[in-house]
Amino acid sequence: MTVDPLRISSLIREAVEAEILPRFQQLADHEIREKNPGDLVTTADIEAEKHLERCLAAALPGSLVIGEEAISRKEKSLAPLEEDRFVWVVDPVDGTSNFAKGKRRFATMVALCRGGEVLAGWIHDPLNDLTAIAETGSGASLNGEALKAAEPVSLDRMTGPMWKKLETTACANAKKGLGVMPRLVRHYGCVGHEYLDLARGTIHFAQYGLLQPWDHAAGVLIHREAGGFAALVKEKTPYRAVKTTGNRLLLAPNEQAWDRLTRLFNS
Asked: Would you say the pTM of this structure is higher than 0.90?
């Protein structure tokens, strides 16, 4: 690694404490707007991303920072993620809708990538002051304690978040004999918190169809380094932090569980 992961964790915490936490449950109406229908952005998102861009670029000279908000404003593109250079991928406030409503489930996510490969990832839970960190090949930890993904169990004992459409598909496939229904939980409204629970074994699975790198790069690595298995549903290929459309990402305790879940969810 070319950076100290604990130093990056401190930089993330500093940005959160400066730009996000002071605005939690304190946002004025003019500090919340729709960037797309149903897709909110707040002053906290914008200022935290600026803060992180400055400090992450300084922490690794020559690196590029790509943030969700800069992409949404079309100020940057995802193309550099395919290049042989260090690129930081930043989601300043994951779960913006929760944050804007004063709900507690939101997170800050950062990943360091090169040529589409995720080298390191951080997910910070601001209100509980918890940070998950992973480096490729070095395991994953939460505030210094090793993370361990859930052990594989039978489908009927698995838990995970499902949108209504996925639940309907799984029910129909279960009736066809393609598996049995797992125990669903509703989506958190914050992918970062779902990844934290996947990596610490609180839930067993999750499937996503919107695959923006800032939502998944850090989380997939942390889950994998905690012992979990993830792959894109089409052709069962590993996740890469690049522009991805027309596919789904499924995470499970191991490859055998992944096979059973994908048969139920995607047949």
From this structure: yes
